[in-house]
Design goal:
Elements: E1 2-5, E2 12-14, H1 15-21, E3 30-32, H2 40-44, H3 51-63, H4 69-79, E4 86-90, E5 93-97, H5 107-124, E6 130-135, H6 139-148, E7 154-161, H7 167-174, E8 180-185, H8 189-200, H9 203-206, E9 210-212, H10 219-222, H11 226-236, E10 242-248, H12 253-263, E11 270-275, H13 280-287, H14 311-317, H15 322-328, E12 329-333, H16 336-350, H17 356-369, E13 375-381, H18 389-396, H19 404-410, E14 417-419, H20 422-430
Helix pairs in contact: 3-4, 3-11, 4-5, 5-6, 6-7, 11-12, 12-14, 16-17
């Protein structure tokens, strides 16, 4: 399996090359040359398969040229060592909880998978050290820091926007030490992401350092996210209804991976991309005009993205055909007032505590299902509500017990270098 650049299809790379490079030389995102559907029998009998086996069969075609079967199975056993439950809140609506991993956010799977892949590749080239350079709007940083902590041959540099991640998120990415370093950027997530992309194209850096990214622009971070959707399908298949997924969306990697699962043959009726006030994609789906804009800070900060990188992959999945895309995707935007109201309503009716991102996903699902009553809807709860404790407490008037996974980082010392320009990033990297 080769991967080509969405900027120039003549630029190709193996899985290993694409993972190590992160982004193509022309600044394009790598995309698989072919997605071969799994046999119908896979989906007919999916309830009889373990999650490890589901993941293996789903990802094998994308990595098999560079990762032997036995190694891949070992990687998956390390990555998938926690649960992915679907919790039913209404007769035709449930939430897929993706926060049972080490940093209590959905990005644990992609970050761990990529870390294990790079660790395996580095064993074959021990003298070649790789620097993972990543921008985070919240949960990516903590998941990447945890996933790569102590991985031989890999250094990690995380850029995050000052004052725009939660206290717990900041602790998770600034307190680990060892091969993990954090840069606190004066600006937005978009500013962080622009700096990262610029560094990849800066020959004065890349001539002396091998850079890769652990954002969802990296194929090894992005593709494993398709596992969640297959696991959810396994859980709800017996409902016998058309399946709709609503995904709280920022950089659009998660929902794009779900659409890859659809390309593999997973029966799914529709996807909903639910966003906060950063409504670039909802506007595109309404006007057909893609107009990126500066990001807006909200209470669902991991989705504060004004120019989502992965939307180009989504358009490619549907051959850049808007009609085909619109048959499979709806996108809606919700403000903070609506988000908090949803959090209150669900808690009052069911006792379930949603984080702000899950609440946006819930709203998107309810809006779509209002006109599609024969569906079973699943919205993704992408982070534990404890990670957004001030918002949850203020909105619901409740206190939450702090899980041990979070408690262990709260009292550690924050270590971060403050920067405000690309020049400072460059100086830091080549020092």
């Amino acid at each position: 399996m080769n991967y080509y650049s969405l900027g120039n299809t003549k630029i190709t790379a193996s899985f290993k090359e694409a993972v190590i490079a992160g982004i193509a030389p022309d600044k394009g995102l790598y995309f698989p040359e072919k997605i071969s559907p799994l046999p119908k029998s896979f989906f007919d009998t999916i309830e009889d398969l373990s999650e490890h086996e589901i993941a293996f069969q789903a990802i094998h075609q994308f990595v098999k040229d560079d990762i032997p079967e036995a190694v891949l199975r070992e990687i998956l056993s390390i990555v998938l060592d926690f649960e992915f439950p679907v919790v039913e809140l209404e007769p035709q609506l449930g939430t897929l909880e993706l926060f049972h991993g080490p940093t209590m956010a959905f990005k644990d799977v992609g970050a761990r998978f990529m870390a294990q892949c790079l660790g395996y590749f580095s064993k074959n080239t021990p003298k070649e050290k790789v620097t993972v350079l990543v921008a985070t709007s919240g949960d990516t940083g903590g998941a990447v820091a945890n996933g790569f902590l102590g991985v031989a041959g890999v250094d990690v540099v995380i850029l995050y926007p000052s004052g725009k991640v939660s206290d717990i998120q900041e602790k998770q990415l600034t307190t680990l030490g060892k091969n993990i370093r954090a840069l606190e950027v004066e600006g937005t997530f978009d500013d962080c992401q622009k700096m990262v992309k610029q560094a990849f194209l800066d020959k004065s850096i890349t001539s002396s350092k091998k850079l890769t990214s652990a954002n969802s622009i990296n194929v090894a971070r992005w593709l494993p996210q398709l596992f969640y959707f297959l696991f959810a399908f396994k859980h709800v298949k017996s409902k016998g209804k058309e399946l709709v997924f609503s995904v709280p969306s920022g950089n659009f990697g998660n929902i794009c991976a779900g659409m890859v699962a659809q390309q593999l043959g997973m029966p799914v009726h529709h996807f909903v991309a639910a966003t906060n006030s950063n409504d670039t994609v909802p506007q595109f789906m309404e006007t057909r005009h893609y107009s990126p804009k500066p990001s807006i800070a909200t209470i669902s900060n991991a989705m504060d993205v004004g120019d989502p990188s992965n939307f180009i992959r989504i358009r490619q999945l549907y051959s850049n055909n808007f009609e085909k895309l619109s048959q499979n995707l709806s996108s809606f935007s919700f403000d903070e007032v609506s988000t908090k109201r949803a959090m209150k309503t669900v808690h009052q009716k069911t006792g379930y505590v949603m984080d702000p991102h899950g609440a946006v996903g819930f709203l998107g699902l309810k809006k779509y299902m209002a006109k599609n009553s024969n569906a079973y809807g699943v919205f993704l709860e992408t982070a534990h509500p404890i990670k957004f404790l001030p918002v949850v407490q203020e909105t619901l008037g409740i206190s939450l017990a702090v899980p041990p996974k979070i408690e262990k980082v709260l009292h550690k010392e924050k270590r971060a270098v403050k920067i405000s320009s690309y020049k400072e990033l460059k100086e830091y990297l080549i020092a």
